[in-house]
Structure formats: structure tokens, C-alpha cells
Amino acid sequence: MKLNQISVFLEDKKGRLFEVCSVLGEGGINIRALTIAESRGYGVARMVVDKPDAAMDVLKGKGFVAEKTEIVAVQVADRPGGLASILKILYEKDVNVEYMYGFVEKFSDKALMVFRFENPDEGLAVLSENGVKVLGTKDIVNL
Amino acid sequence: MDEIRYWNKERETMDRDARRALQLELLRQTVGSALKTQFYRRRLEKAGIHSLDDVRSLDDLKRVPFTTKDDLRENYPRGLLAADPTEVVRIHTSSGTTGTPTVIYHTQEDLNSWTELVARSIVATGAGPGDVFQNMMTYGMFTGGLGLHYGAERVGLTVIPVGGGNTKRQIQLMKDFRTTVLHVTPSYCLHVHTKLDEAGVTRGELALRKAYMGAEPHSENTRLKVEELYGIDVYNSYGLSEMNGPGVAFECVYKNGMHAWEDAYVLEIIDPATGENLGDEQEGEVVFTTLQRKATPLLRYRTRDLASVFGGECPCGRTCRRLSRITGRSDDMLIVGGVNVFPSQIEEVVMRIPEVGTNYQIRLTKEGSLDRLTVQVEIYSKMFSGNVRQLDALRNRIKEELKASIIINPAVELHEPGSLPVYEGKAKRVVDERPKL
Hints:
The structure holds two protein chains of two kinds. Chain A is an alpha+beta fold. Chain A is built from five helices and six strands; from the N terminus they run βαββαβαββαα.
């Protein structure tokens, strides 16, 4: 299934990411994966959290500019060539990846990756058809 | 010091009474031209002036209401054209604050008169044939470039019409052609100096002896700094496109205030709040009436520039009153790298972009000796999609649209809603952190 990533606009100001994380922490929200896309003078923090709707509420309540984005989280064999084997499937099926990043935690011997596809439904379908384990909401909550 | 020479000795040294008589004669002609436009006919008739015969003394001018930049805008494009369109040989427009530009038309005679004023300004500084004149002001609609260009050619200087920017090339030209006189904004002049070392050019390889600095108000300290850095004489230059451009007032070799060419302009200083005329040496807003322009005569045009005027003898023998340095503006116009920018122009662009929220701020800073304009906008949260590329595209779009409107290239910063200062009542949109020039 597709998951919701939380994207937060961050202006280039000291402590701004700290504030995002504090607000989420106070709201009892756990960050499972995090990456920052930066540009000149601002950035966007992208997060996979255990409770995306609650996260949106607390962030907006504190005046942050936040948005939900559909992503797909997958298990990747934690060995040389593990990620390559998944990218090969996507490449062969012509699925465009906008960006990707890794999880903080991992399942046993598997690493976890987040994919943002140009077309999330297509990406999800291709991965599922090729036997790649895609994470659901429960998996994220139970990490 | 260079010897004192004149370009038009009769006009430059005429005694006060003779000049006043000449001004009255030219004012009558100007009123005659102005009456050909509907705008001025209405205004003048209301003031009891139905023909040029109703102007009997210079004091009659004070019955005429002021002309403002808004008047020029409202009468764009042809409302203030007083000459037959077939007589017009040049048009200069400048961008307006709300997208409506202003226009000044020139007949051949008008251009000739402008060129003569610039020619006498150049000669007053001691320059002449044999000098190599590098014109580093922008050409085109901006009157700074073309105005000095024709005057310098008329005097017989060798003109290098390089225009603004491209510092490496400027330095190369200075060196290769033994440039002696520069026409430049003070900030660019300082900037070029910082690049001499980089270009591997020593002062000894340059033949510079003078610079005309204009388009940006600057202080005596900036003059001294440029004079010391380059080892040259620097002369202050004043003009505005509504009064042709440069050549309205210029310093002579004594560098003690700018001789205002009062046979071409009636010069008044007013209290910007009340419109009352102020006496010599009192600071107020500068108001000009054209005396030698057929195509676009302007009566009592409010420049919004603040300065004072003083009489007294100048050792050079010129008898016109002199204009002090411009100390500021009576409106909110900003001068950024020699370009005039109104905050409302920026607001107009920023507010028509839906991704931008309601708050924005304009910051002016210095990068080395060059002005930097940064527009900070708050993004509108509902338009945020989480996509960095979209934000970059938004920033570029704001930048491009601003550049098209205000000519100069701004930096654009995106901020979170609520992060820029909020003001109760009148917002302070402009933060000018530039040290005073």
C-alpha cells in the first residue's frame, strides 16, 4: 500500500528542524524515516511517521507549512546489490523515481527504503508484481 | 586645477536680472507650448492663464499647480505631447510604479538644447578635446547613457559608449584607450576599483583624471574616497529623465555645489508637506519647470528629491545658483545600483502570484560596494505541495517577474507564513541596511 509522507517547509533559520521534531515528540509521534531536501535559503523535511494524520494536525497547529505526499516504503535485502535489484525492476518497467531515502530502523536483516514515484500507483503495482515486500501502515507503527 | 573655460559664456555668466528676463521670455514660450495640451490648458485656464500674454512675471508661475509623476502617468502615452507628432525625434519612457510608464518626447531642437547643457557641464569640469570619455552608464531608455554621450561628442571628447556592467571589459578599455574621464554611478565606481588587482592592472597603467558621478545620491565622503582611491577629481552630476536627464545641474572645477542651468529650468525649492516656496539654503523638495522643451513642457514638476539651493559667487564665474547634494526623497522611491525602484512595483508583482502569502519585505544590503536587493516573501501554505522543485520554480518565477518590472535582478527568499515581521498599522516593507554613501 501507499503511505503518507509528511513534507514540512523549512526556512533557513537556526533550530527550525529542532522545532519540528520537538512538536512531533510532544505530540507523541514517532519519526521512522527522515530526509531533508535543500535548496538555496530553504528546505523541505520529508518524514515517515507512525501517525501521519496526527502529525499534520500538530504541525499545522503550530503554524508549520506541511503537506502529505504519497510514497511507497519497501524492504530491501541488506546485502551488496540489494537496492540495485529493486532499481533494476523499476528501470526495466520505466518507472520514474522522484527521490528516495532510507529508514532509521530496519527489519531484521532487511533495510527499509522510501520511494517517491512520479506515479505512485504505477510504482506500487510494479513492485508488488515483482515480489518486493511493500510496507503497510501497521508495519510502520510496529517498527 | 584645470583652467576655467566656458562652453556658452554668455548664458553661463549672465547677470541675475538678465537671466530673469530670459527666464520670463522662455517661460512665456513654454506656457504657450503647454497650452497646446488639454491637461495644461485646463490647469492653466483655472489659474487664470489663457494665453502666454497672461504670464507677465516669473511670479505668475506660482499660480500654476504642481505637476507630479502621477500626472505624467495618467496622461501616458500622448496626453502631454505638445508638439506635432511628426516633429518628435526621440522618446524616453521610464517604468511606472503600478505598471504605467511615463514618457518624455523630444524634438530635434529639444535634444539639441539638452546636448548643449551637457556640453557646458563637461566643459565646466575642465574636460575637452583630447579627453577619452568612457560612458559606463546604461544606454537605452535610461537617460544617463545617451545624455552624456551626445554632450561629450559635441565638446569633442573621444567617446567610448560601453554602457554599464562587464567590469573586466571596462578595465581593459580604460587601459587600452587611455581613458581620462569616466561617467559612472558611485557604487559601480567603487566596485570597479576592487577589480583592478584581479585584472592585473595597476593605477599607473591608467590615464584617468576625472569621473562624473550621478544617478545615485552620495555624500562628500564617498567623493573623497573615490578621489583618493583612483587619484582623480570627481564631480557630482544631477538630472532626471523628466528634465531630459543628466545636465540639469553639474559641478565645476571648484566642486562646491552643482551649477543649476537656470536658463533652461526654473528651479524652486518647496516644503514637501505644504507646497510653500522656501528660500535659498533651506532644504526642501526640488521643483523644476522646463524652459527649453517644445515636445513635453513640464510646469513645476515635483522631483521628490530633497536638497537646497544657494547663490553667491563661485570663483569659476558662473552666475547660476547651485544645488546641494541630494539628501533624500520626499516619497518612498529607492535607488538601487542607480536604478529607481518604487516599493509598490515590487508589491504589485509579489501580490499577483497566488503561491505568495500576504506578507513580504524588501531588504537592501551591500555586497562589496554593489547594492543588493532581496525580496522576502512568505509562501501561502495551501499552495505547498512538498516539492522542492516546485518551490525553486516559484522562486525563479518571482525573480523573473520582478526583473521584468524593476529592471534590476533581485534575490528572492521564500519564508514560512508568519515568519516575517508583522506591523500594526502601516507596514514597514523596506529595510535598508546599506551604509550611507
